[in-house]
Amino acid sequence: MKRTTLSLVVAVAVLALIVGAATWTRPSSSQATESAPPGQVPIQRAEAVCPQIRGGQGGTATAYTAFTPSGTAGATGGKAVLTEVADAAKTRGSVEAPGRLGGADVTEPEVPALAWEATDAFAPGFTAQSTSKVTIGAGRGLSGAVCREPATDHWFVGTSTAQDREAYLYLTNSTDVAAQIDVELYGPDGEVVTEGVQSLTFAPGESQNIRLKTLKPDLGVAAVHVLARSGRIAAAVRDQQGTAGTDWLPQAGRPGRTFVVPGIPEDASNVRLVVFGASDTDTEVGIEVAGKASTFKPAGMESVTVKRGRVAEVDLGGITKGEASAIKLTAERADILAGVRVTRGTGDATEVAYLAPTPELTGRAVLADNRAGGTQASVVYLTAPRETGRVRLTTTDGTTPATAEVEVPGGTTVAVPVPVPANAAKFALVVEPLPGSAPVHAARMLAEQVDKIPMFTVQGMTAAHETVALPSVHGDIAIMVPTKKQ
């Protein structure tokens, strides 16, 4: 027998022995053990796009602030860098290390869209904000936005195209692939037929802004929907009312039937609730207010009828009556979306902010830009819709942190000045529910008194994205062995 023939025979015999052993030892389906649940590992990359700043008057200043909580086990190395979306070679800021604030301060009246990229140890829990202050002229006020990653679906509820309002939609493709999107606009009479905003194509690095009044003027209240047909897009809406105030609208989230909108300050002079019928069925929406002592239904405004595909507005006036509050909404038959417009001050000295529903805290929530000292203040609003909740507040500027534990009685809202680290003027805030706590919803107000104008902006708080589920995997040679049909 030739040597090559002998080698082939030996190889076949060895393979038969392996297959036979595998067949003999392969467990039956009844013997197979269930797979272990997925493990949680730190995320390795986070992205946050800060919208373009444009059309500012004199005295404009914008702070870009980012923060990563320290102490995430298993995460090392990496970086967090802020660059221009249109030219990633232009670096605008960075974060030195987890646990320290980073970013950039600019005084340019117009700033292009910027994007943060955080990797490895800088990614778990990474958060970024842009906060602008305009001291004179139209659009004066304090406006804040949480910088967010690109997505495929965005809703904004509560803007307007009325004569005294100026609202813009900012769109940015920070990804490396093209995106195609549709923009939909809804008013009190339903969807508005618009031209030129369907199948918009965005090349990588491209940004556009759309003046909403050009789509349909004289909408007293409106909802905006941005939907990506392909790719992903970052979207933001900024609304200003002459010299009466300005701010960014927070994203309204996903349609649902129960919502809590925290963050209404005790000195609000006017509160306007805006609800959009996101389903194909009309519905009644119950309105409740969670105040300092209890939850109550506002007299004469206990509910509102919301028609499908239409926007409804309820002027709640000075509903807070000197108490920090939250609005609870319950839709009877169909999904809705909601937003709230809050005004502080009176006469010529007013300022506005926009709120949106927030989910209950399921982990630690992080906001990077918080301030104290002089006429600046940071206040946390905590609402426990049903039973008593307990949370821990932690603030840090990279040195010694400050902490406080807060109890929130069921059905109430508590306003708490955030603890301030020693000698700190700017710091990060972490809010986390304590073990055994009932559901708690949170928002933070950043306020500053400027020439008798109560400037402020409110950001809702959601649990930070820190880990991702990693399914367990194990080797099994039995998958290579054919089995007989039973």
Number of helical segments with 4 or more residues = 1
Shape: globular
User: Unreliable runs, pLDDT <50, ≥5 residues?
Assistant: 1-33
Radius of gyration: 27 Å
* Largest sheet geometry: 5 strands, antiparallel
Topology:
Layout: H1 3-25, E1 39-42, E2 45-50, E3 60-67, E4 80-84, E5 91-95, E6 102-106, E7 114-119, E8 127-134, E9 141-146, E10 153-159, E11 166-172, E12 179-187, E13 190-192, E14 200-202, E15 207-211, E16 222-230, E17 234-240, E18 246-249, E19 258-264, E20 268-277, E21 283-290, E22 295-296, E23 303-306, E24 311-317, E25 325-331, E26 336-346, E27 349-355, E28 365-371, E29 376-384, E30 389-396, E31 402-408, E32 412-417, E33 426-433, E34 441-450, E35 453-461, E36 467-470
General description of the model:
The protein has 486 residues and is mainly beta. Helices cover 5% and strands 49% of the residues. It is built from one helix and 36 strands. Strands 10, 12, 13, 14 and 16 form a five-stranded antiparallel beta sheet that branches. Strands 19, 21, 22, 23 and 25 form a five-stranded antiparallel beta sheet that branches. Strands 2-7-4-5 form a four-stranded antiparallel beta sheet, with no helix packed on it. A hairpin with a 4-residue loop joins strand 21 and strand 22 (295-296). The chain is globular, with a radius of gyration of 27 Å. The relative contact order is 0.14. Mean pLDDT is 90; it is low at 1-33.
Short description:
By secondary structure, the protein is mainly β.
Please supply descriptive tags for the structure shown above.
single chain, 486 residues, mainly beta, five-stranded antiparallel β-sheet, 36 strands, globular, disordered N terminus
